[in-house]
Amino acid sequence: MTPVVAAAVLLAAVTHASWNAIAHHITDKLVGFTLISGGGALIGLVCAPFVPFPHAAAWPYLILSALLHVAYYALLMRSFKLGDFGQAYPIARGTAPLVVTVLAAVFAGEVPDGWQAAGVAVSCAGLTGLALWGIRGSGRRPDWAAVGAAVATGVSIAAYTVVDGLGVRASGNSLGYIAWLMMLGCLGVPVYAAWTWRGELTARLRPFAAVGLLGAALSVSAYGLVLWAQTRADLAPISALRESSIIVGAAIGTVFFKERFGTPRLVAAGLMVAGIGLMLHTAG
């Protein structure tokens, strides 16, 4: 992995944690995700005429990824409703590189070496620690519904990451792929919101339009950088490096949302980051 690719993925990590924080900040999760995903679809629509059309071989991946993104948005909304940002975000993002490592080996032939396998084990230890600490880190029993939603979100992230990694490589141009993916994959939530609210859609969205559309721009930028990077490096190391966003997410949750992180959850998140570092050990 070249320094330029690594820098692009690290920038994607920061922007990704930022748009997730925006989504969490908007109290009505459906409003937040409607603005962010709808804005993403609009950005894709505007950009599509000016970028190369994806090759035919990429379209099965695009369609499958669009369906997976609908599931991802639904699960992410659920996890943000049930748990606090400081817990839901690290679990969801920390799960993804573990699953990507397995899926990339099976479907892309990218078998991890010993360092990467060790990283998977260490990250699993961190993931278990986050789950056991529970939502508030105050000695209460873990809220398994919140943990389950966050883990399911991570699995959906891993699935579309591998699908898009293969798809963008087959597309011939990462910009064309991301534009069409935004149009197809981001329509589910706005369509559902329009059907649910009917004549009230504009009134519900207007108060949060500016911050929601900022989240949309950050979301498209973050994933566009990742897709570009996936054309230049293996999927598992890219996924692992992107999940350094866990650190950003934890800081945002503590500083801006006043959420208790606690020493046990801090240690657990540190283990996950250490595991990510091990997975990147031979990714140069």
**What is the strand content?**
under 5%
How would you sum up the major sheet?
none
Q: Would you report the number of β strands?
A: 0
- N- to C-terminal distance: 4 Å
**What is the alpha-carbon Rg in Å?**
18 Å
Number of domains: 1
Order of helices and strands: HHHHHHHHHHHHH
Low-confidence parts, pLDDT < 50 over ≥5 residues? none
- Shape, per Cα inertia axes: globular
What is the share of helical residues? over 70%
Work out the helix count. Answer: 13
Kindly state the mean pLDDT as a whole number? Answer: 83
Structural class: mainly alpha
Q: How is the quaternary structure best described?
A: single chain
How would you concisely characterize the structure shown here?
The protein has 284 residues and is an all-alpha fold. Helix content is 79%, strand content 0%.
